[in-house]
Amino acid sequence: MKPAPFEYEAPTSLDAALDLMARHGADAKLLAGGQSLIPVMNFRLAEPALLVDINRVAELDFLRQDADGTLRIGALTRQRRLERDPLVAKVAPLLHEAVPFIAHPQIRNRGTFGGSLAHADPAAELPALAVALGARLRLRRKGGDRWVDAADFFAGLFTTALEPEEILVEAAIPPAPPRTGWAFLEIARRHGDYAQAGIAARVTLDESGRCREARLVYLSAGDAPVQAREAARLLAGQELSEAAIEAAAEKASRDEIHPPGDVHSTPEFKRHLARVLTRRALRKAAERAREAA
Ligand SMILES: Cc1cc2nc3c(=O)[nH]c(=O)nc-3n(C[C@H](O)[C@H](O)[C@H](O)COP(=O)(O)OP(=O)(O)OC[C@H]3O[C@@H](n4cnc5c(N)ncnc54)[C@H](O)[C@@H]3O)c2cc1C
């Protein structure tokens, strides 16, 4: 199918893009990599009167580290750059490990960090990662901006805290504490497909080797990234033994996720996958945290 007719603007500065969004609001849509928006328009699930193409807004395309270790990622940063840039591998290895699971290289060449977060597909990797990494997201409108925690940004199925005239401009990812380990795992029918189940896990040990903090964030497990807070609480203060890991995996997969069924898998099967992935991810994250100690 073809999209409904639309007007097109391609501003070259953020101010010009913000000005267009302020004037057109809900009638306009931002075009980043187009890897989700264009199919949605072709199916006529979206019929924006105006496309504001931000691909020429160079100030949104950056990756840098602040003096305090915070990693800052501009919204227009391509997913391929996240996969390959040594800074990401060094500062946010969880992100580095997970990005190759997003679709295929051709899609990652175009798809952007901000586009994936704004699209808010509950099966997408980057929203779950943003929550697991404790990212803060900067949303700008003409004449103002605000920061929102990733955990509060995802409001439901393809829904975020973004107002129609706002642009997501960047994410700030705080440095991981010492003795932190991580793992990203997912199961898809074919490599590059959206995951049937997936988890971003992070654990931080205290000086005695017990778990100080754990984060377990699931994709394809509800209407948005799902953080299993109770399961994480079970791990706090514990040695990351097989029994503790099993208890957390059981808690998260039974009580905290709400996976939808689809043509390939029932919710029960997805819970099973999540349980198995949680065990594996926690073992791997614990091992990495011990190595970092
Ligand atoms: C065949 C195929 C397979 C895929 N598989 C996966 C997969 O396995 N995992 C996965 O995570 N993704 C997958 N994707 C989606 C891909 O990752 C997209 O790149 C991503 O979801 C959207 O990023 P984009 O830059 O292309 O955004 P666009 O498609 O340009 O935009 C998406 C939405 O975000 C809005 N938007 C874009 N940028 C901003 C911004 N800075 N501020 C506010 N709103 C903004 C747009 O207006 C639009 O509503 C797949 C896509 C295809 C075509």
What are the secondary-structure elements, in order, as H or E? EHEHEEEHHHHHHEEHEEEEEEEHHH
CATH superfamily of the largest domain: CO dehydrogenase flavoprotein, C-terminal domain
CATH architecture of the largest domain: 2-Layer Sandwich
**SS-based class:** alpha+beta
Low-confidence stretches: none
Terminal Cα span = 55 Å
> For the CA atoms, what is the radius of gyration?
19 Å
Which fold name is given in CATH as the topology of the largest domain?
Enolase-like, domain 1
Quick one: biggest sheet? 5 strands, antiparallel
Total count of domains:
3
The strand count comes to: 14
The CATH first-level class of the largest domain comes to Alpha Beta
Figure out the total of helices. 12
* Ions and ligands: flavin-adenine dinucleotide
Relative helix content: 25-40%
Mean pLDDT: 97
Structure, described:
Helix 10 packs antiparallel against helix 11 and helix 11 (242-256) runs antiparallel to helix 12. By secondary structure, the protein is α+β, with helices and mostly antiparallel strands. The protein has 3 domains: 7-52, Uridine Diphospho-n-acetylenolpyruvylglucosamine Reductase, domain 2, CATH 3.30.43; 62-173, Uridine Diphospho-n-acetylenolpyruvylglucosamine Reductase, domain 3, CATH 3.30.465; 180-292, CO dehydrogenase flavoprotein, C-terminal domain (Enolase-like, domain 1), CATH 3.30.390.50. The model has no long low-confidence stretch (mean pLDDT 97). The protein has helices spanning 14-24, 37-42, 79-84, 86-91, 93-98, 105-110, 113-119, 125-132, 150-153, 229-235, 242-256, 267-292, and strands at residues 7-9, 28-31, 50-53, 63-65, 71-74, 136-141, 144-149, 154-156, 159-160, 167-173, 180-187, 197-205, 211-219, 226-227. A 5-stranded antiparallel beta sheet has the order 4-5-10-6-7. The protein is globular. A hairpin with a 5-residue loop joins strand 4 and strand 5 (71-74). Helices cover 37% and strands 24% of the residues. It starts with 6 loop residues before the first strand and ends with a helix. The protein contains 12 helices and 14 strands. It binds flavin-adenine dinucleotide (FAD). Flavin-adenine dinucleotide (FAD) binds next to strand 2, helix 2, helix 6, helix 7 and helix 8.
